[in-house]
Amino acid sequence: MARPHVPRPAGADAPQCAGRRIQLGYDRSGSGPPVVLLHGWSGPGFTVGDGDLDHLAAVYGMPGAFTASIAWYRSGAGAVARSLAEEPPAAAGRIAVPVTVLWPEHDPLFPQAWADRVEEFFSDITVRFVDGVGHFAPLEFPGEFAAAIRAGVGHGGVSG
Predict the structure, then answer these.
(1) Structural domain total, the chain
(2) Domain range holding 10?
(3) Does residue 25 surpass a pLDDT of 60?
(4) H or E segment at 129?
(5) With CB atoms 3.0 to 4.6 Å apart as the test, which of 1, 68, 98, 157 could cross-link to 124 if both were Cys?
(6) 89 pLDDT higher than 70
(7) Average pLDDT rounded to a whole number, residues 151-158
């Protein structure tokens, strides 16, 4: 299905996230609500495939789905202030479940520099930096994403 895309001009009014300009576009061709396409969240050169885009549009186009997804983000109001005030637990209080974090290079929400303190909160963590990709892990690097899950399940731990 062809989807006309009308990009928002990249100017001073474009929203910013972690110092990066985010361009928004709207698909008004469908019969449901507009699908918001986010640019600046993925790695350089990444394009969402038509099948993935159709799936996302179908899932978020269901009655109440888009509203629920926005409510999930809004429910975290105050989380930044709480995070900034959080102190690392003593070694015995750290999360002990084995955890693997795949940390994308171009994620505007979670810069790789923020990985410097995760070991203060987890006792068994592996951080893998993934070059050239952004926020959409399962779409941008599905092989590495699936391999991390298989490895976590294989040793009885949880990967994410």
Answers:
(1) 2
(2) 6-74
(3) no
(4) strand 125-130
(5) 98
(6) yes
(7) 70
Is the pLDDT score of 124 beyond 60? yes
Nearest CA to 25 among 14, 36, 34? 36
d(CA 59, CA 54): 9
| Predicted confidence (pLDDT) per residue in 61-88, tens digit | 888 888 888 887 777 767 777 877 889 9
The single residue listed with the structure tokens 């040793």 is 155
Please choose, from the candidates 110, 135, 109, the residue with its C-alpha nearest in 3D space to the C-alpha of residue 48.
135
Q: Which amino acid is at 18?
A: A
Determine the Cα–Cα distance for residues 52 and 39; give it in Å rounded to an integer: 15
Highest mean pLDDT of the ranges 4-18, 78-92, 108-122: 108-122
- Token output for 19: 């110092």
Which 3 state secondary structure label does DSSP give 17? strand
Residues 55 and 91 in one domain: no
Both tokens of residue 58? 């179908």
Amino acid residing at 76: G
Distance, in Å, from the CA atom of 78 to the CA atom of 97, rounded to the nearest integer, reads 27
Check whether residue 70 and residue 10 sit in a common domain. Answer: yes
